Amino acid sequence: MAVDSILSSPLGPPACEKDAKALQFIEEMTRNADSVQENVLAQILTRNAQTEYLKGLNLNGATDRETFKSKVPMVTYEDLQPLIQRIANGDRSPILSAHPVSEFLTSSGTSAGERKLMPTIKEELDRRQLLYSLLMPVMNLYVKGLDKGKGLYFLFIKSETETPDAMWPLRAPTSPPVGAVFASGLLRAIRFLQLNWQQLTEDIRTGSLNPKVTDPPIREYMTRSIRPDPELADCIAKECSKENWEGIITRIWPNTKYLDVIVTGAMAQYIPTLDYYSGGLPKACTMYASSECYFGLNLNPMCKPSEVSYTIMPNMAYFEFLPHEPNNSPGSTPPSQLVDLADVEIGKEYELVITTYAGLCRYRSRATFSSHRVPQLAPQFQFVRRKNVLLSIDSDKTDEAELQTAVENASKLLREFNTSVVEYTSYADTKTIPVTT
């Protein structure tokens, strides 16, 4: 396929032929979202037809949407938790998925302050890697010369643990310019540099690794790769020794083009601090993913944080959308209200409901999105809030978006003192009653 074959596409001219193929794949998926979704659902129902969960719903091998929608209920994690716990305890029968569970992913806990165990299968890794392979072709549309440089990513990996049966590992999601998954993670890395730059520069100066680093594979790799570099050590020490760390990222890495980091939702509170340390570099939210499922891409990754939206890739899972109502609950909302990806109404808010290859069926994600459309492509969705993440006192309910706005407005009072809010948390104080005037 020639590079110029999609010059007139909504995505823009590709940087190379490899990128052209990736962008073409995105367009084909999103232009034909409904038919792709229909095929995905049929594949999921066919392969998992003999699982305990689907057999219990009496689908009788049906793979069409109508039967699926009439017989499969919406569920929450609490509904599936007993089945998931059986898998974690060592039950090897096909409970949710016909394919063997390879490991459990633990959620970050950002959805409702608690960690959940999400079973996954090996082929999900390939599906997720496919989504990752689409990120740079999109980024190349907006930032030139990325192929001539390097990217620095901070990977925060929690210690691997085991399920009660010791059969499957438990993993927390790891992070994917300069970047980390969440804004808070990148700031952790900067703080670590603040505390340890002297030792870092000493290691670089001498070409040796501090004895505090005891992990054998890391020591073996670094022994092969590290070389004495006094000039680089002096350069880093010169910047880090200064009291003012404003713009430290571009002072140490002057060619940095953007920060690859999530700054939507609860992470929005860290935007001013990231601006301080980066000198206002663009913050690219490249994709939307969770432990349950990888959803889609941001096709305009260099937009302002307040304008971030995601195009759902219909090949990742089967997606349905529950119209947002203030008091929606699993028991009060009939599944008949769910709409397909092709049928969402522009400008409305929806909670995302997913059916995955790993066996989750009509699972409520608790993430609420507002939909809008890009010409010729599938609808895009802007993250609004996470359901049930709110302060609730009697009839007064405050979600994370409203809390973020309140903190931003209150922090304006600190400007005259050259002070800003670095981080905040919240809780419901029921000891006092606010006085209104």
Automatic annotation (TrEMBL):
<keyword id="KW-0436">Ligase</keyword>
<comment type="similarity">
    <text>Belongs to the IAA-amido conjugating enzyme family.</text>
</comment>
<feature type="domain" description="GH3 middle">
    <location>
        <begin position="310"/>
        <end position="386"/>
    </location>
</feature>
<dbReference type="Pfam" id="PF23571">
    <property type="entry name" value="GH3_M"/>
</dbReference>
<protein>
    <recommendedName>
        <fullName>GH3 middle domain-containing protein</fullName>
    </recommendedName>
</protein>
<dbReference type="Pfam" id="PF03321">
    <property type="entry name" value="GH3"/>
</dbReference>
<dbReference type="InterPro" id="IPR004993">
    <property type="entry name" value="GH3"/>
</dbReference>
<dbReference type="InterPro" id="IPR055377">
    <property type="entry name" value="GH3_M"/>
</dbReference>
